Amino acid sequence: MHRSLFASFALYSAALLLTLFTLAPLVWLVLMSISSPNDLTSVPLNWWPTEVDLSRYGHLVDLNNGAGHRFLAALRNSLLTAGGATLIALIVAVPAAYAFSRRGASLALLFVFLATIMMPPITYVLPLYEIFGGLGALNKTTTLIIVYSAMLLPFATWLMKSNIDVLPVEIEQAAFMEGASTAFTLRRVVLPLALPAIAATCMLSFLVAWDEFFYALIFTSDLSAKTLPVAIADFSAGRVTDYGVIASVGVLATLPPAILAICFQRFIVSGLAAGSVKG
Question: Is the dihedral of CA 59, 233, 144, 252 positive or negative?
């Protein structure tokens, strides 16, 4: 089926507009990070830097200065919290999703789990703060991992269930007829088929935990547990703000999730292409 010239023009124009709308803030963030303070505060604004300044990136990865120490500590905390919460959520969500999809677990219970996502985060702050405060667990990375795991689990379970639902049941039944246990079938039959879904769930869960700001702001108070979103807000505090430093932190903070998204995108595309052909 051939598109008309107008339809092709409209389609490519919409794709170009979407690309510009998506990339323009990122391009401006990079330009801000390499612009001098005079370029960023001049009127009218200089959209292109008169001189390229990469010194901010050097300061942010240098432990011998305050900015670098704060950034690298926050980066470590973000990697630990987002990675740990994603791992725990996947370990629990995969068998839970299989139970909901194949073992007749109550869907009402799943909807109750999903309802917790719809509640504003501020409704959970007071009870969680009292609980963790009573346990002496405030300002700890472990606390954020627990909170993020609880936050990600309903989403990860729902996403995995919707993907397990479309997997062929006949393959599992053949394994059961050969005497395989449920655990063996899940591990050796279902998981290989669901790898693209696991990759997508892992990527999206990591991004949600990586960008979370509210709980990290409430439950942390110093560099021992602060994550990158909170650290970026700290960089913007004060009477004199270097917008180039904030932009540099933002650029560096986007690298880990961007690299993860690129890697998983290739894996997901190859997995779906391989699974789309039936023998």
Answer: negative
| Residue 163 shares a structural domain with residue 262 | yes
Q: Which two tokens stand for residue 199?
A: 């990759």
Q: Does residue 257 contact residue 210 with C-beta atoms inside 8 Å? A: yes
For the whole model, what pTM was predicted? 0.83
Helix axes 243-275, 5-33, angle to 10 degrees: 140
Q: Are residues 45 and 69 in the same domain?
A: no
**Number of domains into which the chain is organized:** 2
Residue span of the structural domain in which 7 resides: 1-53
Kindly state whether residues 35 and 103 are assigned to the same domain.
no
Based on the fold, state whether residues 163 and 45 are members of the same structural domain: no
pLDDT band at 123; cut points 50, 70, 90: confident
Q: What tens digit of pLDDT does each residue of 75-120 get? A: 999 999 999 999 999 999 998 888 888 776 566 777 777 777 778 8
